[in-house]
Design brief:
Blueprint lengths: L2 H8 L3 H22 L3 H18 L9 H19 L24 H9 L4 H12 L4 H8 L3 H21 L3
Length: 172
Amino acid sequence: MEKELLLECQRNNRNAQRKVYEKMAGKLYLVCKRYLKNDEDIEEVLADTFYKIFTKLNQLQNHEIFEAWARKIAVNECLQKLRSMKALEISLEDEFVESTGSPTDSISFEKDILKLLNFLPEGCRAIFNLFAIEGYPHKEIATMLSISEGTSKSQLNFARKKLQELLVNHNI
């Protein structure tokens, strides 16, 4: 992201904020989609994410890491939304979530992954995203989700097995 554009955002320049929104909205939408299914929830989290980005931008010391910083805000907002929905009850007994459409519909690799992730229970999906996609270690995941490190590891293992089953059963 261009440093000058971000500096203009810090000065509350609405045109600059609109440009940043247009550049980042699609990327952050896909981040949120990995955690949340409901479009209304995603839109709400995106609005909260951009509010935080624009109100806290003056705290960002290194403008070169803006995109990673914005992604982290989006992930944290998604996790906060999940907690508020009380949907993060992690249990191996969770049923698979029904998805609209078949996981074999292939528009793009990322959309295929999103479809497969929709078959995982909320807790497993969140842990898989945090570990495999966002790169957080189990210790940090455990802290973020208020669970044990062992639970994080077992839920990741459960998610991997279920995703592997889906891949084999649906020839993806």
